[in-house]
Design brief:
12-stranded mixed β-sheet, 281 residues, Aminopeptidase, 2 domains, acyltransferase activity, GNAT_dom, 12 strands, EC 2.3.1.-, transferase
């Protein structure tokens, strides 16, 4: 049922076409929501949460994915505030809020006092895209990983996640769940790495993909090997393989303060198209 005040309701399978039209307004920025819709059909039991839609004159104009991740789609600041007011009627269940900086900030301004202090807020995360050939030579030793690689790859994934997020993904009994996620990405053909002497020297994964775009995450080089060009050449190889086999545009977002990573992506040919923000609990 529509909220009589704000025109907001929970979306379901009958809304899928309208929702995909909405994500299609910027299919690269909205790749997470597009992927989630296509893989769950907007069925709450598969979403593990809900997707809210805001309607104006019968047309879906904005949406909010509310699961482990809270991500808004084509939301203005006003839409974000409306979603936030609705979110305040329930206990916080999300672990991360992320997306375009402006609506994330507008949402947070409303829920901040009710949802508690976040563990960290990253307000400047350039969103990058590449839709052509990489500008540097791809590393020919970067390849798709296989299940045989899992025992070597998993510690590198844990190290990357701990360094990036600040919390080990395998703590508190989470090791099996995280290992399952790494295995899933391998099975999908979304995990890429270069190995030397049973050691990962570069790795990256596709986190989400649609017919329009793929979003890369987990880019990592061991600390003692950084500054040698492994990241740029490795990402060039990932871009080449992803554009060939998965989606025509490759995207990612990076912390604004991570100057070496931003320089590596620029060398590959990524261009900045937006600014994201992430709030972590």
């Amino acid at each position: 049922m529509l909220s009589t005040r704000h025109g907001v309701r929970v979306l379901g399978p009958t809304d899928l076409a309208a929702f995909l039209d909405l994500t299609g307004r910027d299919p690269v920025v909205n790749v997470f929501a597009d992927y989630r819709a296509r893989t769950t059909n907007l069925e709450p039991r598969w979403l593990g949460g809900e997707v809210w839609g805001r309607f104006r004159d019968g047309e879906l104009v904005a949406a909010c994915h509310l699961g482990a991740n809270l991500v808004m789609v084509e939301a203005t600041d006003e839409d974000a505030r409306v979603f936030a007011e609705r979110a305040l009627t329930r206990r916080r269940s999300v672990s991360t809020i992320y997306g375009l900086q402006a609506p994330v900030r507008a949402f947070w301004d409303v829920v901040a006092t009710g949802w508690g202090r976040p563990r960290e807020a990253r307000w400047c995360q350039p969103h990058l895209e590449i839709a052509g050939e990489p500008a540097v030579a791809p590393d020919p030793r970067v390849r798709r990983t296989t299940r045989d690689d899992l025992d070597v790859l998993f510690p590198a994934c844990v190290a990357m996640h701990t360094e990036e997020v600040g919390v080990p993904p395998d703590q508190g009994g989470g090791a099996d769940l995280y290992r399952t996620r790494v295995s899933q990405l391998i099975s999908l053909g979304w995990s890429f790495a270069r190995f030397e002497d049973d050691r990962v020297v570069f790795k990256a994964e596709v986190a989400y993909a649609s017919p329009h775009a793929a979003q890369v995450q987990g880019v990592w080089v061991p600390p003692d090997l950084r500054g040698q060009g492994l990241a740029a050449a490795g990402m060039a190889a990932v871009v080449e393989q992803v554009r060939r086999d998965i989606a025509p545009v490759v995207s990612l977002y990076v912390n604004g303060y991570n100057t070496p990573a931003r320089a590596a992506y620029a060398r590959v040919g990524f261009r900045e198209t937006a600014t994201f923000a992430t709030i972590m609990f």
